[in-house]
Amino acid sequence: MHYGSISxxxxxxxxxxxxxxxxxxxxxxxxxxxxxxxxxxxxxxEAAKDGIKSIWDQADIIKVSDEEVVFLxxxxxxxxxxxMRMFHPRCKLMLVTEGGEGxxxxxxxxxxxxGGIKVxxxxxxxxxDAFCAGLLSNLAKDFGIIDDEPRLREALKFANACGAxxxxxxxxxxxxxxRDTVSRMIRRPSAAQSSTTDPSWQGYQRWRFRHSSILE
Length: 216
What we know:
40% of the residues lie in helices and 10% in strands.
């Protein structure tokens, strides 16, 4: 089960959210949490911080942005020591995303960083959601990836590519890539060897929709 914090702001969505988490946990589901901070929707920054933290220790997987780390801890998101202050005993995987620079990962056994993929950014809306979707799509196939660092790094490379591609188009939904698009992005040559007319990297998604009748 994957969720954010916006549904915690008011009733009845908060109670519904909490009940859904309880049912999922009892049913043996893993809980994935992306706070997705939206301060204007909360009554105050203090309320946002309290609300986000109120369910923090129930998540198996936590994804936060570097900006959210600053908001929640007041510390440096590039500091592993600072970030580990947010890691709780139940947590199996915590991620700190750093935009185009990639992401940091923390588990109960190891920690590290996976670099990002450079693209020409048009709109960052939905990049975090795409990152989560890319990671969770791989964990849904084999949750054991979390305990295998090389495989986890590959899954995070995939997730980074999902987020990167999403920023190359306007709008959160139209820009979401499919698996084939992500695979092409990961296999692309270096930026110096590529061009925007090459459908195997940036712009491939647009190319794919324009040629959908040929591909089918």
